[in-house]
Amino acid sequence: MKGVLKRIAAVLSAILLVLAVYFVWARPYQLRWGATDSEVLRAMPGDSLDLHPTFLATRAITIDTSPEAIWPWLVQMGFNRAGFYGYDIIEGIGNTRSFTSADSIIPELQHPKVGDAVPISLAAQTQFSEIDPYRVLIWAEGINGEHNGGFIWALYPINRNHTRLVSRIRWSHHWRSPWLLSLELLTEFTDHLALRKILPGIKVRAENKKIPTMAIQTIEFFFYFAAALIFLYSILFALIKPLTRRTYLLVLAAGAMWLIIWYSPLWIGAGAILELSFIGYCIKSRTPKTGHHRSQS
Question: What is 24-56 written as a DSSP string?
Fold first, then answer.
């Protein structure tokens, strides 16, 4: 029993160390991916949806075209609408309109009204709260008619051919609602991966450039998923196997790899190499070494 408690305590300490790095380094980075200091500090329409959010993220990207060319792609987004231009392998599950995101402008989705529903998944739904064509689009979350944060999309022209698309997400955790809290905690760690794909997805469409294939998206998603899976497996392995210094360090290494692949600007191809190297090391280290013993005659 003492050995089990010792393993649990050791694993918990490793998890806490990884989470500490997340909150000190990864979270501040992912909450402002692509955004400048002025964009992070800038007041935006929709900020009043939640004046004191516990989750506040401002991300941005430069698109080499005008707001007029970007707006049609932006306004048609949503689940059971045009999709999110991101990882369709997960975002398209249950989408009755199309499993893949739109690669063209859909006329019937170009004129939503304030109050219209904007589903964002099978489990969550928002509504159009503000529509200012070519400038601002806001999806608001709500419970019992009250807004509880939302998603803000704003277009800021740099010149005639360049525009900053700024996304801001603000909401507060529902600590007394286990179902909502579980969705919010999932969003806490995965939202960055989604937005980091959605914004470039809007960019390539608005600029009329080649859209990444479903196969490429799926391979990218697989390696992101694998990084988290390796970290979880290392935790389980450490809980059921005898506690050693090497086992403890492997949990920390797997956690560090997860953080690097998910939250650093590392190219996913390099992340895949890192994962395969880690798996190779683990397999090699578990393989028993055999000596060549020959009997002497």
Answer: IIIHHHHTTTT--HHHHHS--TTGGG-SS-SEE
